[in-house]
Amino acid sequence: MAFTLAPDATLLKPIRVGDTDARNRIFMAPLTRSRAQADGTPSDLAAEYYSQRAGAGLIITEATAVSEVANGAYMNTPGNYTDRHQEKWAEIAGAVHDAGGRIFMQLWHVGRMGHPEVNGGIEPVAPSAIAADMTTHTPSGKKALVVPRALRTDEIPGIIADFRAAARRAVDAGLDGVEIHGANGYLLHQFSSDVTNQRTDAYGGSPENRARLTAEVVEAVVDEIGAGRVGLRISPGNSAGDMREENTVAVYEALLNRIAPLGLAYLHVLIDPSAREFGVLRAVWSGTLVLNTGRETGTDFCQLESYAEWGAASAVAVGRTFLANPDLIDRLLLGAELNEPDVATFYAPGAEGYIDYPTLAELEEPRTA
Ligand SMILES: Cc1cc2nc3c(=O)[nH]c(=O)nc-3n(C[C@H](O)[C@H](O)[C@H](O)COP(=O)(O)O)c2cc1C
Predict the structure, then answer these.
(1) What domain range is 194 assigned to?
(2) What is the pLDDT of residue 367?
(3) Pairing with 42, which of 21, 83, 204, 309 sits 20 to 30 Å away (CA)?
């Protein structure tokens, strides 16, 4: 597979996202890689992995837990709630900046997707005690997800405080900003859905109530680090994480109407742009919009360029193709063949499939012993 972008393509033009100058509009989508150390400190290889991909207009990191209970959907995923975590993230941010890149940290609470066997015995929490009908890999093999404990109303301020504290640590570590993970069936998405959220307090029921936790997290993080350093990811109608939503548009309209005046760096939407929901939400959101189409058949850069040209998207996020092509931008300019992602090493430990995807230069001049 190969695509050619002209040097004057919209996707290659710089863009300002909040307080950050991105050198092009092709961002690296958040990608969990399961290489972190047992205590949630990122891998020693992560600085190299991310700096190899500094050609992206903006790197959005893998989902990073805001607390211990927020972790545990998959093995070896990082956090940003201890000094040791923060020190490693500072090393990663420094390496990306030295390579000319920009980096936002995706902040994550897994909610009911957590498994006690992955997370030191910690019981997962969620809006309601409803299990996802799914399995996850644990140290003792594949296990069904468990029924989570429903959060009490008086525990919600603590969740918001965890996002706030992790955002502060991200900025103190030198990252350019944070992306709040409101997508893909994790805690904030579980609150948005009328299926996984059956609460009767101020965080359940009406669309405004279901949007409340995400909005309050966004507001707290904005208060902590400034709107120009905050993005939000949503995936309206996406079924990842055994997610169902019955009146999708209403909750996201309520959310976007509430947060629009804050002036966030961007809204990141994982959606097929031909979906009805996208048209409605694009009309509500006049700010910077990062689009991830997530097509099963892989990224079509010609199609993405046309979304950017029309203004349907301000920038695009690319996941698997960036994972496999550290020098993606150079390849697109040259129309060079793209490396294929190796699914078997997406979540495998070690360097293979992580920092060893070759650049074009390495393909042309193979490393000699
Ligand atoms: C290996 C892998 C890990 C992922 N991890 C995350 C994640 O940590 N956070 C997130 O929001 N999405 C995650 N996603 C979803 C991607 O960000 C993206 O939406 C998806 O891969 C579709 O985009 P693509 O076709 O460009 O790969 C992951 C996807 C893959 C393949």
Answers:
(1) 10-364
(2) 59
(3) 21
For ligand 1, atom 6: residue with the closest CA:
31
Pocket test of ligand 1: the residue of 53, 320, 322, 342 to mutate, having most ligand atoms within 8 Å of its CB, is 320
Domain harbouring 169, CATH code:
3.20.20.70
Residue 241 and residue 146: Cα distance in Å, rounded?
13
What is the rounded CA–CA span in Å between residue 80 and residue 222? 18
**CA atoms within 13 Å, Cβ hemisphere of 219:** 13
- Asked whether residue 4 is domain-assigned, the answer is no
Question: Which ligand 1 atom is the nearest neighbour of the CA of 298?
Answer: 25
Is residue 214, in this structure, part of any structural domain at all?
yes
Residue 368 banded pLDDT, cuts 50, 70, 90: low
Percent of the chain beyond pLDDT 70? 99
Q: Please give the Cα distance from 234 to 192 (Å, whole number).
A: 10
pLDDT in tens, 168-207: 999 999 999 999 999 999 999 999 999 999 999 999 999 9
Task: Give the residues surrounding ligand 1 with Cβ less than 6 Å away.
Answer: 29-32, 62-63, 106, 181, 183-184, 233, 270, 292, 294-295, 299, 318-321, 346
Which of 1, 11, 32, 113 most suits a substitution to test ligand 1, by most atoms within 8 Å of the C-beta?
32
Give pLDDT tens digits for 270-282: 999 999 899 999 9
Structurally, how many domains does the chain consist of?
Answer: 1
Residue 361 to residues 146, 326, 331, 340, 357: CA-CA distances in angstroms?
48, 11, 10, 17, 12
Residues recognised as catalytic? 186
Q: Is the pLDDT of residue 85 over 80?
A: yes
288, part of any domain: yes
By alpha-carbon position, which residue is closest to atom 28 of ligand 1?
Answer: 31
